[in-house]
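Technical appendix A lists one of the benchmark inputs used to test multi-chain prediction within the project. The record comprises two sequence entries:
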Amino acid sequence: MKSFVDKFREEVREYLERLESGLLLLEQDQENHQVIDEIFRIMHSMKGSGGMFGFDLISDVTHDLETLYELFRSKKQHLDSEVISFTLHSIDGLHNLMVQEPTDEHRLLAQQMKMDTKKQISRLTLTEFNPEKEKSPSNKHEIASETTQTTYYVSFVPNENIFINGTNPLYLIDELHALGECIVQVSFDRLPTLTEIDSTKCYVSWNLFIATSETVDTLNDVFIFVADNAQIQIDKVSSGNIIHQEEILADFLNARFNQENWEPIESETQDQKTTDEIALPDENNEMGVSLKSSREIPDNPVPTQTRVDSIRVDSHKIDQYMNLVSELITAQSRLEVIALKMNGPELDSLTETFEKLGRQLRDNAFDMSLIPLQSITVRFKRLIHDLSKSLDKEVVLVTDGMETELDKNIIERLIEPLMHIIRNSIDHGIESKNERQNKQKPVVGTISIKALTVGSYVQIEIEDDGDGLDKDKIRKKAISQGILSNQTKISEEEIYQLIFEPGFTTSELVTDVSGRGVGMDVVRRRVQEMRGSIDLLTQKGRFTRFIIKLPLSLSIIDGLLTTVGESYYVIPSSAIQKIYTVKPELLKKGFRQVVEFEGVQFPYLNMHEEFESGNSIPEEQFVVVVSFENQQFGLVVDAVVREYQAVIKPLGRMLRGQDVFSGASILGTGQLALVIDTNKMIQKYS
Amino acid sequence: MAAEIIQGINSYFTFKLGGELLAVNVGHVTKILELTETTKVPNSPRYFKGIINLFGEVLPVFDGRLKFGFPEIENTRNTCILVLVFELDGQPVSSGIIVDSVEKVVIFESDQIKPAPTVGKGFNTEFIHGIATLNDEFVIILNIEKIFSEEEISLINTIV
């Protein structure tokens, strides 16, 4: 049972996510009925499965929400931004209600939410419905049909397995009864002999006549949730109430039985006829191809339900798979060592095949654990929506390259830092509407998020067109907060770096949004924990841009295996630009720690000198040139062994005090090689 | 290395270090390894020997002699690595400690364990859980969590 509940939770979370993104779409296009329908469906499903798994509060609250959205779905009322905000708020509430054993607090919350929903409903139903806004002829039809009734024939043949998802067909028939006068016939055609009856299957079907003032749409809606699981046919018998004229009904059934065409009988009164004539074309349209009713389809139909050939896999399983592939690569490098010793051509070729397969498997595993940034943009939209409302600013989000993929673990850990940056941008960056007007900027502020892949790194840029950072203000603040001493002369760039210092805040007053001084330092630390870097570009009065660079994956990297003394070190390939050989004497002669190759001078770090006091320096050393910030920097190692796929193992909590080494990798021989974080190492030793 | 700390046992694992008989609660001991080559982590404190590969995971190894201020002596065939698990910030962490030799498991009831004397031995009493006697010999029962507490480990960083 527990696993069912977990599944349910997961499902609800997904529902809520879809609701959220749907609502954000509606924000832009409040008349998008495709989305409204989708929202309604999700709410209905949530209500159903909530009740099934004992999450009664969820099902209670969504029931009321469903009632609210029924108003929009049936086009009785227009959706407005207040409702959207309200619903978004309710989604947050629903997240909290996802408990099996609710406390009084939960019950209170649910009660409150239900009250609020009812308030929304009464607010909407009390306001005068404005018919001018209604563009479609269905409006006229609706008004007209209030005075008249139409007779339909409904054939409802449920599939045998309809009980499986908990549907009770009788309720549907009941629902029809509620819509108008019915004559119901139950058909037992499909009933097998007693011995063959399977009690979990449905053998019954229904035929009925209904006289109703509702449209055929409404009738169809009754079956909306079983449409995939039953054959439903609704035919118009007459545009009048003929439910008591049994002869006509019999005629209809005869015609139907003989597969003749049945012309709906027009009712006698002239008055009704005219209204129905208006209604008919529209009706046919909706009956035939319901999606073809062109009036509500937006120019760019937004995919509300993405149908992808994909399966859902527990993310733990992917993690496990990744681990296994890592183990395999480690084992395979051991095999290589052994093959080298044994020196048998057959073993060699097998080892080679293994190597190839291992590499493919690794790439495949990589691919699987990568997810597009797209998956988190909804959160940003939501944040911007909520925040700009509460701060009375207008902000739009522009995204680019959101299809860029990153390791899911990175994406998960990226959410908080990015949210924080966006929060800051809206709160501090983007000016108030008045201020923007005075500066002759567009009133609507823009936050843009761009992502692109650069080599083995992904670069994410978050930019706002707000006020930019004020370097004098930052400097003053830093001095007053004791982060910077009064005398220190620092460059402009360094001043901006100060905002990443712990405890730094320029905010004059602490809002609940930001300004509590817990902030950019945490962002920087998070990014660095993922072996990434964060930079800042700003221009006073114009913009602030954060540039985050992140590795594609956390666990396996391509590297260069090198030795210093007797120890192995892995230098990530992504940082390496060139490798030179060098005589140790040449390094010693250097005036400052600078070495020259091909006419270019660059600073270097002799790892042998730093790490190995005892061992003798070999006659020839290697300078591995790596990029450091915008410069080149040489790391001097004793020997370059080979290229190496490094499966990075964390050094563990005992060693988290240092950051020069991002981890260790197990070599084929079982020995360990430390993986160097070149940026950190250069910073530390130079 | 998903080792687990087993609690509530009154058995103690004894080992020798610099001629002294020391002990830890048996619940903290997960493995005894032969002395192997460690991979040095540059610029770490001397008592931190380096890291080793323990079944595909990285295990940090400390030199018990240096850690407790005993003179460094030649390794013998009895020298080995004791793998301990203890709690750090509420999470189990494994770590190896090089000892001169491992002895045996003995049972001490809690009333047999006396509090550590505040003077003498040149030992930081903070590290000592208590003292018991075994065949007229003192056994110093160590407080593992204290020994590897956060403060101590960050030394690795400050020395760099």
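The CA atoms of residues 582 and 621 of chain A lie 5 Å apart. The two ends of chain A are 59 Å apart (CA to CA). Comparable benchmark entries are summarised in Table A2.
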